[in-house]
């Protein structure tokens, strides 16, 4: 899978990054030639100015290789910060999930506008890609609203684990719309994801009425589960659209459509629900600011990690999201995940990592 809100995306609700094995930009730039007209460049002598002299040449400046494991460290930091963002969403008490999405869109808009002006990409985009940009914005913002609602209505670990089913939906939609190959391996990963979701939801007709083990009523737990699955579906569709557009659309322009449509969609939904209210609690205001700032930091670290490290190891390290979610749930909410949830987490994380490594292996052939 090629994620990124996402912004995301790699962050929940904003999958906007493209996994790549390329080196970071600028890593292959050659050092500027030294000297004035008639003088030999660096590493050349007076007797053979046209080519480096093996006996007298100064050693060329070696390209600076990234520290081994630095990309994985960046990915680990991004996983920790993404989990912190989820924790802050869960901790907000008196603000609706849709309103949290609106605040986040406003925060990101303040960052994206100067970037678009600096890069001189405009605010509309290429003529043939505008419909895809609008779809990316609508689907991405809907995905964000759904996962925030899931965080507020179900255990943090359960919602986080279900988001790992996104690669399965991406493979299915890419097979349908982009005519990409859907292999037996993809079918196997799909079955693993379905099994994981069933273990987390624990429907009464399979597990009995007393097996849910959650403090919320089962109906509320089910609503949160459906929202988390909806997030995975819309994220998968968003990733397919981003793959369709490729590199023809600037990254910040894609985020611009995401925040504009997200703000518009959130405002309309809040008007219909009548849920708009400014947070009166100081902690809620602090959490809203942290959701924007920490989420942005997580996206930066994930981007750096993808620039340095290969896609497969990054996908494995991203599984630390689940570990942090379990830890935060136990520490801050005193909720010990059941063995059903642990089993579902193993199935979903294995499916996500397997799908990512399988795609990476195919692309590296």
Automatic annotation (TrEMBL):
<dbReference type="GO" id="GO:0005886">
    <property type="term" value="C:plasma membrane"/>
</dbReference>
<feature type="transmembrane region" description="Helical">
    <location>
        <begin position="315"/>
        <end position="333"/>
    </location>
</feature>
<feature type="transmembrane region" description="Helical">
    <location>
        <begin position="101"/>
        <end position="119"/>
    </location>
</feature>
<keyword id="KW-0256">Endoplasmic reticulum</keyword>
<dbReference type="InterPro" id="IPR037185">
    <property type="entry name" value="EmrE-like"/>
</dbReference>
<feature type="transmembrane region" description="Helical">
    <location>
        <begin position="131"/>
        <end position="151"/>
    </location>
</feature>
<dbReference type="InterPro" id="IPR000620">
    <property type="entry name" value="EamA_dom"/>
</dbReference>
<comment type="similarity">
    <text>Belongs to the TMEM20 family.</text>
</comment>
<feature type="compositionally biased region" description="Low complexity">
    <location>
        <begin position="23"/>
        <end position="39"/>
    </location>
</feature>
<feature type="transmembrane region" description="Helical">
    <location>
        <begin position="70"/>
        <end position="89"/>
    </location>
</feature>
<feature type="domain" description="EamA">
    <location>
        <begin position="70"/>
        <end position="201"/>
    </location>
</feature>
<feature type="transmembrane region" description="Helical">
    <location>
        <begin position="286"/>
        <end position="303"/>
    </location>
</feature>
<keyword id="KW-1003">Cell membrane</keyword>
<keyword id="KW-0472">Membrane</keyword>
<feature type="transmembrane region" description="Helical">
    <location>
        <begin position="157"/>
        <end position="178"/>
    </location>
</feature>
<dbReference type="GO" id="GO:0051480">
    <property type="term" value="P:regulation of cytosolic calcium ion concentration"/>
</dbReference>
<protein>
    <recommendedName>
        <fullName>Solute carrier family 35 member G1</fullName>
    </recommendedName>
</protein>
<feature type="transmembrane region" description="Helical">
    <location>
        <begin position="185"/>
        <end position="205"/>
    </location>
</feature>
<keyword id="KW-0677">Repeat</keyword>
<feature type="domain" description="EamA">
    <location>
        <begin position="224"/>
        <end position="353"/>
    </location>
</feature>
<dbReference type="GO" id="GO:0005789">
    <property type="term" value="C:endoplasmic reticulum membrane"/>
</dbReference>
<feature type="region of interest" description="Disordered">
    <location>
        <begin position="1"/>
        <end position="39"/>
    </location>
</feature>
<keyword id="KW-1133">Transmembrane helix</keyword>
<comment type="subunit">
    <text>Interacts with STIM1; stimulated by depletion of intracellular calcium. Interacts with ORAI1. Interacts with the plasma membrane calcium-transporting ATPases ATP2B1 and ATP2B4. Interacts with ATP1A1, ATP2A2, KPNB1 and XPO1.</text>
</comment>
<comment type="function">
    <text>May play a role in intracellular calcium sensing and homeostasis. May act as a negative regulator of plasma membrane calcium-transporting ATPases preventing calcium efflux from the cell.</text>
</comment>
<dbReference type="Pfam" id="PF00892">
    <property type="entry name" value="EamA"/>
</dbReference>
<feature type="transmembrane region" description="Helical">
    <location>
        <begin position="255"/>
        <end position="274"/>
    </location>
</feature>
<feature type="transmembrane region" description="Helical">
    <location>
        <begin position="225"/>
        <end position="243"/>
    </location>
</feature>
<keyword id="KW-0812">Transmembrane</keyword>
<dbReference type="GO" id="GO:1990034">
    <property type="term" value="P:calcium ion export across plasma membrane"/>
</dbReference>
<feature type="transmembrane region" description="Helical">
    <location>
        <begin position="339"/>
        <end position="361"/>
    </location>
</feature>
């Amino acid at each position: 899978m090629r994620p990124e809100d996402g912004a995301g995306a790699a962050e929940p609700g904003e999958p906007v990054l493209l996994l790549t094995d390329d080196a970071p930009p600028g890593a292959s730039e050659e050092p500027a030639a030294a000297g004035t007209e008639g003088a030999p460049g660096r590493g050349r002598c007076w007797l053979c100015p046209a080519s480096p002299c093996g006996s007298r040449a100064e050693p060329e400046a070696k390209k600076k290789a990234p520290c081994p494991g630095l990309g994985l460290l960046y990915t680990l930091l991004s996983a920790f910060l993404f989990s912190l963002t989820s924790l802050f969403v869960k901790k907000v008490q008196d603000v609706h999930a849709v309103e949290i999405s609106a605040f986040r869109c406003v925060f990101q808009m303040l960052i994206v506008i100067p970037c678009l002006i600096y890069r001189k990409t405009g605010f509309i985009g290429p003529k043939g890609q505008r419909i895809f940009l609008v779809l990316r914005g609508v689907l991405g913002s809907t995905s964000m609203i759904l996962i925030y609602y899931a965080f507020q209505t179900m255990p943090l670990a359960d919602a986080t684990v279900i988001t790992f089913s996104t690669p399965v939906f991406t493979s299915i939609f890419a097979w349908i719309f982009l005519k990409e190959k859907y292999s037996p391996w993809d079918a196997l990963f799909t079955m693993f994801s379905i099994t994981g979701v069933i273990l987390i939801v624990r429907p009464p007709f399979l597990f009995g009425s007393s097996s849910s083990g959650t403090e919320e009523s089962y109906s509320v737990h089910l609503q949160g589960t459906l929202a988390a699955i909806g997030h995975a579906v819309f994220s998968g569709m968003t990733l397919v659209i981003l793959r369709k557009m490729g590199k023809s659309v600037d990254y910040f322009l894609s985020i611009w459509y995401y925040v504009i449509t997200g703000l518009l969609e959130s405002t309309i939904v809040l008007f219909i629900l009548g849920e708009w209210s400014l947070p009166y609690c100081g902690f809620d205001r602090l959490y809203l600011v942290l959701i924007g700032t920490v989420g942005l930091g997580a996206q930066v670290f994930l981007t750096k990690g993808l620039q340095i490290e290969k896609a497969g190891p990054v996908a494995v390290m991203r599984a630390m999201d689940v570990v942090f979610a379990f830890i935060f749930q136990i520490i801050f909410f005193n909720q010990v995940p059941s063995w059903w949830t642990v089993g579902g987490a193993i199935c979903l994380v294995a499916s996500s990592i397997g799908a990512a490594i399988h795609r990476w292996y195919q692309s590296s052939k």
